[in-house]
């Protein structure tokens, strides 16, 4: 049975925030796109409204239910609650295998027809994903499907809005717009003229070492970092409270602390920078759509499983017609502590910088390759329609 044709299909996303901004970032992008581009009636259940507010300033952290960008946002406080079949959406998504309330599952089982139940999994470039994408799992008299984002046409693809590339190219072609965007954060003309690097990483990244290389370098570097990120290294460099608006120049390096911004403005930040250091999943995907060189700081997992995921991605991404881009591979492994014999950053950074033109060309070719897989939201709706 297909999705309803007499009304907009409804969809519920259940999101537990584990990685501060990555989990809610992905769910919020998906919710906005499904509502805005596809006319889906979306309800986003989220347990951490404070983190949500950091990337969507209009969110009221005290509201049990509210509207934002056409999406119904509900504060998911606990696993309690009694639900009726009328409360259940046509498509139910549990993000990263979070446990949705038992009462909601019981109401799902009473629906006729039953909803499409999807477990939206994490992003990885590992080959096994292709075999697991769309697999089924019987649950409570229903069928749950595993839906994997990914980097091939045998997966669900990547999150990408329909007009994203058009917006990016128009913004990057408008020097005045880019200058005005950076200017609102206090970035000077001299800082804009330097090599601009955005920094978003986990605390384990070797930021202090990289700062030292940039500071002693012969070419000016402007590092733009959101408040609270790499806090120890940033505060040590600035020598004062590393709050939004703080900045200091030492040698060739200027570090400037930015406030957290909305998702749309974060995209613009990636578009204006020459190199983007990103983390987790959400900013990692946005860096790919920015078409600029980037280094990915992957979310840490037990037994260094994240290193396996990192290498799987590099095997796909850091290769162009000439072969592997060794400077990118070595820098990415060192940035994540994944190389036992890593070179010092005094050698890694100059090699990476010398290859930036080649890395940028690869990034733009990679974009086209990823676009050919379709976008996650459209692929998810097509799958749901064919499944129900």
User: Which sheet architecture does the biggest sheet show?
Assistant: 8 strands, mixed
Structural class: alpha/beta
Mean pLDDT: 95
What share of the residues lie within helices? Answer: 40-55%
The helix count comes to: 16
Unreliable spans are none
Q: Tell me the strand percentage band.
A: 15-25%
Broad shape: globular
Ends: how far apart?
A: 5 Å
Count all strands and give the number. 16
How do the strands line up in the largest sheet? 3-4-2-1-5-6-8-7
Over the alpha carbons, how many angstroms does the gyration radius reach?
A: 22 Å
Could you characterize what this model shows?
- The protein is an alpha/beta fold and 388 residues long.
- The chain is built from 16 helices and 16 strands.
- 43% of the residues are buried.
Question: Quick gist of this model?
Answer:
By secondary structure, the chain is an alpha/beta fold.
Descriptive key words:
8-stranded mixed β-sheet; alpha/beta; single chain; 6-stranded mixed β-sheet; 388 residues
Topology:
Layout: E1 10-15, H1 22-38, E2 41-46, H2 49-55, E3 65-68, E4 71-75, E5 91-95, H3 102-110, E6 116-120, H4 128-132, E7 136-139, E8 142-147, H5 164-172, H6 175-183, H7 189-193, E9 195-199, H8 207-216, E10 221-226, H9 231-238, E11 247-250, E12 253-258, H10 263-272, E13 275-279, H11 282-290, E14 294-297, H12 305-317, E15 319-320, E16 323-324, H13 326-335, H14 345-354, H15 356-371, H16 376-387
Parallel strand pairs: 1-2, 1-5, 2-4, 5-6, 6-8, 9-10, 9-13, 10-12, 13-14
Antiparallel strand pairs: 3-4, 7-8, 11-12, 15-16
Helix pairs in contact: 13-14
């Amino acid at each position: 049975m297909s999705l309803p044709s007499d009304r907009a299909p409804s969809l519920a996303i259940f999101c537990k925030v584990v990685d501060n901004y990555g989990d809610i970032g992905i769910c919020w992008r998906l919710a906005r796109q499904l509502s805005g581009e596809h006319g889906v009636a979306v309800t986003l259940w989220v347990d951490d409204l404070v983190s949500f507010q950091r990337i969507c300033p209009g969110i009221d952290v005290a509201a049990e239910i509210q509207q934002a960008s056409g999406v119904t946002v509900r504060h998911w406080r606990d696993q309690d609650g009694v639900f009726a079949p009328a409360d259940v959406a046509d498509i139910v998504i549990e993000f990263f295998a979070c446990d949705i309330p038992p009462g909601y599952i019981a109401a799902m089982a009473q629906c006729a027809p039953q909803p499409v139940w999807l477990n939206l999994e994490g992003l990885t470039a590992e080959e096994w994903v292709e075999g697991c994408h769309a697999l089924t799992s019987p649950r409570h008299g229903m069928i749950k499907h595993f839906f994997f984002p990914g980097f091939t046409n045998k997966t669900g693809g990547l999150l990408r809005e329909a007009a994203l590339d058009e917006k990016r190219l128009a913004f990057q072609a408008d020097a005045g717009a880019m200058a005005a965007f950076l200017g609102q954060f206090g970035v000077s003309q001299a800082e804009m003229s330097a090599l601009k690097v955005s920094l978003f990483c986990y605390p384990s990244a070797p930021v202090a070492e990289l700062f030292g290389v940039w500071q002693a370098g012969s070419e000016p570097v402007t590092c733009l970092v959101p408040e609270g990120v790499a806090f120890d290294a940033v505060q040590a460099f600035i020598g004062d409270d590393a709050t939004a608006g703080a900045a200091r120049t030492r040698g060739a390096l200027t570090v400037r602390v930015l406030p957290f911004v909305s998702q749309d403005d974060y995209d613009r930040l990636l578009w204006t920078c020459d190199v983007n250091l990103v983390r987790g999943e959400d900013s990692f995907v946005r860096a790919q759509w920015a078409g600029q060189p980037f280094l990915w700081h992957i979310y840490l997992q037990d037994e260094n499983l994240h290193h396996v995921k990192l290498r799987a991605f590099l095997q796909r991404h850091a290769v162009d017609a000439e072969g592997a881009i060794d400077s990118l591979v070595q820098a990415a492994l060192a940035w994540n502590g994944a190389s036992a014999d890593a070179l010092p950053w005094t050698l890694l950074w100059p090699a990476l910088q010398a290859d930036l033109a080649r890395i940028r060309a690869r990034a733009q070719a990679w974009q086209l390759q990823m676009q050919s897989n379709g976008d996650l939201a459209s692929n998810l709706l097509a799958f749901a329609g064919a499944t129900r």
